[in-house]
């Protein structure tokens, strides 16, 4: 039985990566020139897809990017991705780990107005990255150790800008690992056992 369990652990640790998907995001580089694969919400009045005309040192005139100049309220760009994976089912002792990466640029159109903006990334409804009042050229951002228990998970980018716009490109979401998650009953038994052990040690100290 112990050998079988060890074999299963080896299979999970070494066999699972071969089943990892490349990019779970559809049209993450916006090469289609549209947002057909994405869902827009919030202030969408300034959300566009087009060539990178920023003129920054790292800009590429032939690269399609997503731009958002939302002002009155955050503009949200999202996509529901398939995150079921081999181990991502609720109740499984193993769960998938995801890594998200993307390129972000903040173009400040005015040299006199203050830089006032806020960007967030939400994964499964939770804020996993946030940045405020920044200005700069294209920057590569990586967010690791993302977990979800749902077969489909929302990935959302929220942007609000007052004197500039935010551009996003090369969105990549990959299943990059597997983590062991104890079942609630096992975790409860473990905590109870530790509690009894600590109580016993404290009783011995008092009696001695």
Element string (H = helix, E = strand): HEEEEEEEEEEH
The share of residues in helices is 10-25%
Q: What is the radius of gyration computed over CA atoms, rounded to a whole number of angstroms?
A: 23 Å
Average the pLDDT over all residues and give the rounded result: 82
Record field, number of beta strands: 10
Share of residues in strands: 35-45%
Number of helices: 2
- Biggest sheet strand order reads 1-4-9-6-7
* Low-pLDDT ranges: 1-18, 186-190
Give a written overview of the molecule.
With 208 residues, the chain is of the alpha+beta class. 18% of the residues lie in helices and 43% in strands. The chain contains 2 helices and 10 strands, in the order αββββββββββα. The chain has helices at residues 2-15, 184-207; strands at 39-42, 47-51, 64-68, 75-82, 94-108, 117-123, 126-132, 136-147, 152-161, 164-180. The strands form 2 sheets. Strands 1-4-9-6-7 form a 5-stranded antiparallel beta sheet, with no helix packed on it. Strands 2-3-10-5-8 form a 5-stranded antiparallel beta sheet, with no helix packed on it. A hairpin with a 2-residue loop joins β6 (117-123) and β7. The radius of gyration is 23 Å and the shape is globular. It starts with a helix and ends with a helix. 25% of the residues are buried.
């Amino acid at each position: 039985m112990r050998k079988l369990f060890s074999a299963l652990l080896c299979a999970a640790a070494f066999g699972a990566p071969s089943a990892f998907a490349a990019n779970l995001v559809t049209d993450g580089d916006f090469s289609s020139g549209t947002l057909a694969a994405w869902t827009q919400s919030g202030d969408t009045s300034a959300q566009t897809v087009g060539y990178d005309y920023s003129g920054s040192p790292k800009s590429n005139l032939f690269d399609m990017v997503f731009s958002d100049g939302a002002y009155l309220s955050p503009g949200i760009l999202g996509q529901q991705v398939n995150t079921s994976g081999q181990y991502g089912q609720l109740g499984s002792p193993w769960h998938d780990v995801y890594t998200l990466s993307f390129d972000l640029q903040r173009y400040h159109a005015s040299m006199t107005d203050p830089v006032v903006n806020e960007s967030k990334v939400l994964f499964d409804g939770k804020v996993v990255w946030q940045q405020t009042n920044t200005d700069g050229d294209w920057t590569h951002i990586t967010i690791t150790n993302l977990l979800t228990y749902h077969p489909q998970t929302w990935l959302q980018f929220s942007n609000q800008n007052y004197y500039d716009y935010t551009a996003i490109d090369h969105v990549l979401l990959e299943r990059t690992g597997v983590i062991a998650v104890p079942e609630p009953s096992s975790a409860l038994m473990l905590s109870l056992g530790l509690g009894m052990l600590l109580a016993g040690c404290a009783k011995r100290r008092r009696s001695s």
